[in-house]
Design goal:
Length: about 180
């Protein structure tokens, strides 16, 4: 196999080798096929613009997934305007015997809800939450992967849960109008 001659061929080579992995990552983060393909295209446009940086990276896949994460988090941030209404509408009433943390964690198992809350979090929190809830890594694995302490991972996860709690409590459930029976 011959070496790629120009930047377009190099970009195409990265796409052939890593395109599917980047698309899967975008799909897991965004939960929407069309948005995932759009984001995958954006990632490989960045590859083309930053070939030197990619070639210098220790792991091309890690570099690409970091760019994919940032692209997807950016998409999520742009979609955040709809989140408050959607979150309060989707949030189930807490069970009487469950702790607030347990109820919140069960609620956040819904991947769409996680994505919506992520749009309100800083990028460092987004990365940790993506590794925890989307990649299903343990805290120790995340700490090793990101070269941070386990305590930092715990604090960032707590920030995420605090953000989720705040968003879910933004607006009370609508009160039934007079003359109608409660649901």
């Amino acid at each position: 196999m011959r070496e790629p001659v120009n930047e377009v061929e190099q970009t195409e080579g990265y796409y052939r080798r890593y395109g599917e992995a980047v698309h899967r990552r975008c799909l897991r983060l965004l939960g929407d096929e069309a948005l995932a393909w759009d984001s995958t295209q954006e990632v490989f446009l960045r590859v083309h613009e930053n070939l030197k940086s990619l070639r210098a990276a220790g792991s091309p896949l890690s570099w690409l997934l970091t760019v994919a994460d940032r692209q997807c988090f950016s998409v999520l941030r742009r979609r955040r305007t709809e989140v408050t209404h959607a979150l309060t509408r989707l949030a189930p009433l807490p069970e009487a015997h469950a702790s607030p943390e347990a109820a919140l964690e069960r609620l956040l198992v819904d991947a769409d809800l996680v994505r919506r809350v992520l749009a309100h979090c800083p990028e460092d929190v987004q990365r940790i939450v993506a590794h925890r809830f989307i990649d299903e890594l343990e805290q120790e694995q995340i700490a090793t992967l990101l070269d941070v302490s386990r305590k930092t991972v715990q604090r960032k996860l707590q920030t995420f849960f605090d953000t989720a709690r705040r968003l879910l409590e933004v607006a009370p459930r609508p009160e039934p109008r007079k003359g109608t029976a409660p649901a």
